[in-house]
Amino acid sequence: MTLPIFAYILHQDGTMDDTALEMLSAASKIDPQAPVTALVLGGSPGLNAVCQKAARYYPEVWKIEHEKLIHLDAEIIRRLLARVLPSKAIILVAHEHFGMDLSPGLSILLDTAYLPDVIDFHGIENNRVRATRQELNGLVSTQVDCELSRGAVMTIRPGSFKMDEGQVRNGRIVDKSKEVLQEGLPETRRRFLKFIQAEAGEIDITQSEVLVSVGRGIQDRDNLDMAFDLAKAIGGDVACSRPIVDAKWLPKERQVGNSGNTVKPKVYIALGISGAFQHLGGIKGSPFIVAINKNPKNPFFQVADTGVVADILDLVPKLTKKIIENKEKKAT
């Protein structure tokens, strides 16, 4: 029996998040024949634009609009979804701050299975979907079977699935607002205070096309120079993971990840970074990712286009030197 699949669409200021297209890829790996519906909730003026964008890729889009949904509140949204979602369905949500807040409670309200932080699917057999997750901060990959007799709520790690932009559809937008809000807006114990915009620093890595990003593997603050030298040689900028900011080796404006900046470069070079989902969640689009790490089981290799098992302290200076030599040869 084919179960319907629903994808919760993240958006901000009228712009659909890249995870919307990643979840299409995830859905096709679960069941290529399953109907996939986008769920778009909000209260901002840009909601219609998000629905229209989603309808280019999804065959059907369910829109739920209310002025008080302009700010995300998982307590309200999970109760609204429970009113409209059918039983025995699969619901996909991005595994980031809001998704981790929304999904466990939603699975309880729907009385379904809950499977978090999935990085791959291997199809359905005997009413069970086989999925790959990572444990121990990404050091171990595990395969799990999720029973689907009552449906499931699953969170998808951002960046783990390639964005599905292959088939452009003219999907149908269905306004479910009246149906869902007949009983009024659910009560919440939360109160939105204010939105704090990050302060601009000396560099805006969100605009960089090439990023050289460093993690714990750099070992010492003095070794950061090799990252800056490589970035200069290839015309890029230096970014970092959270531990580098926590150690006060680089300012927060250079941090990539859920608690840092979201970047969309064309090329992303990860030097000695673990590849935890908190960091990968800050990398959007479809950049060419190069991961260099001396641990052959490093999680970044799971999503990298090119992986190099090597000590960055040994390899990076040699790489930079070779790049400079090649540029000088071309100039002569």
What does this structure look like?
- The protein is globular.
- The protein is 28% helix and 27% strand.
- Helix 3 crosses helix 4 (97-110) and helix 6 runs parallel beside helix 10 (312-331).
- Strand 7 and strand 8 form a beta hairpin.
- With 332 residues, it is of the alpha/beta class.
- The model has no long low-confidence stretch (mean pLDDT 91).
- The termini are far apart.
- It folds into 2 domains: 5-180, HUPs (Rossmann fold, 3-Layer(aba) Sandwich); 205-331, TPP-binding domain (Rossmann fold).
- The strands form 3 sheets. The protein has a 9-stranded mixed sheet, with helices on both faces. A 5-stranded parallel sheet has the order 13-12-14-15-16.
- The chain has 10 helices and 16 strands.
Q: Which strand order does the major sheet show?
A: 9-8-7-10-6-1-4-5-11
CATH topology of the largest domain: Rossmann fold
The number of distinct helices, counting runs of at least 4 residues, comes to 10
What distance lies between the first and last C-alpha atoms, to the nearest angstrom? 66 Å
Biggest sheet statistics = 9 strands, mixed
Assign the CATH superfamily of the largest domain. HUPs
Quantity of strands, as a count: 16
Tally of structural domains = 2
What is the overall pLDDT average? 91
As a whole number of angstroms, the C-alpha radius of gyration is: 21 Å
Q: Sum up the overall morphology in one term.
A: globular
